[in-house]
Amino acid sequence: MTIYSFRAECPADVEAFKAKCVDARVRVVTREEPDKLFPDVEVEMETEASMDALQTLLREVVDGHVMLQTLRACPLSENSLERDCVAL
C-alpha cells in the first residue's frame, strides 16, 4: 500500500472523490483533517492504486482541481499542499 495526501476545497469534494473510487473499485482508506479556519480538508490515504489511476479519478471529479494539483505520494506531514501545474 502506498500513502498519498492532498488538499480539497471542501468535504463534498472528498466525498465525490471517494464515490469515484467506489465506482472504479479502487480501495482507499482515508484520514481527513478539516481546516480550523477554512472549508478546506487535508487528506491522507492508503491505497494500492497508482498515481496515474488516482489522477484519472480526480480529473472526473467536478471542481476537483485542487485535489489533483496537491496530490503527492507522501504522508500528509511531508506534503506542502501547494498547488502544482498538473494538467487538468
Say which CATH homologous superfamily is assigned. Answer: ACT domain
What is the domain tally? 1
Q: Which geometry do the CA atoms define?
A: globular
User: Structural class, from helix and strand content?
Assistant: alpha+beta
Assess the beta-strand content as a share of residues. Answer: 15-25%
Structure description:
The protein has 88 residues and is α+β, with helices and mostly antiparallel strands. The chain is globular and about 35 Å long. 32% of the residues lie in helices and 24% in strands. The chain has 3 helices and 3 strands; from the N terminus they run E-H-E-E-H-H. The protein has helices at residues 11-23, 51-59, 65-70, and strands spanning 2-8, 28-34, 41-47. It has one domain (2-77): Alpha-Beta Plaits (2-Layer Sandwich), CATH 3.30.70.
Topology:
Blueprint lengths: L1 E7 L2 H13 L4 E7 L6 E7 L3 H9 L5 H6 L18
Antiparallel strand pairs: 1-3, 2-3
Short summary of the structure?
The chain has a single domain, classed as ACT domain (Alpha-Beta Plaits), CATH 3.30.70.260. Helix content is 32%, strand content 24%. The protein has helices at 11-23, 51-59, 65-70; strands at 2-8, 28-34, 41-47.
Summary tags:
Alpha-Beta Plaits, 3 helices, 24% strand
